Amino acid sequence: MASMPRAWLLVALLVGWALGHGTSWLMAPPAPAPSPAPEALEALRVQLDELPSRLAMAQPRTSCVVSAPDLSALRAELLQALHEERCASTEAPAASEVAERAPAPPEPSSGALALPEHGQRLLDEALRTRRWGDEQAEELRRLYPELTGPQREQLTRTLIVHINRGELIVETEGHPF
To answer: What is the share, in percent, of the chain residues with pLDDT greater than 90?
Structure first.
């Protein structure tokens, strides 16, 4: 029974709102947008016409004087630099002579050659199991100091490519390498 007065109250509120809104709409239709007065438009047109002359008066006239560089001094300096370069290039030993004088790089030891293979085996084993865990990451960290820069970069790049392709699932607590 208590819900009955609430329902009537809700209906009365809705009907009251609708009647009020409808009455106000019928009594006062929306007014058209006001159009600007012709006098106001004429005043704006006059101000726009005067604007270029007012701007011209407000801006000071400045002129810049740029002196041309002394071309003869510049030419002499350039010729001197070219002459020095030409003399230096004729005095420098040929590249083949430098290559003959330079000592041959030392051959890597068999242990150094085995390090990249060890890293590749570690990666192949992880690809076989499709898992990169803490043990593999720790072994790779131990291997890194013994590798050269390009070897380390190649091994890391290969590992990242396999991880990004989804061929390896990373199951480490910290960084994967």
So the answer is: 24
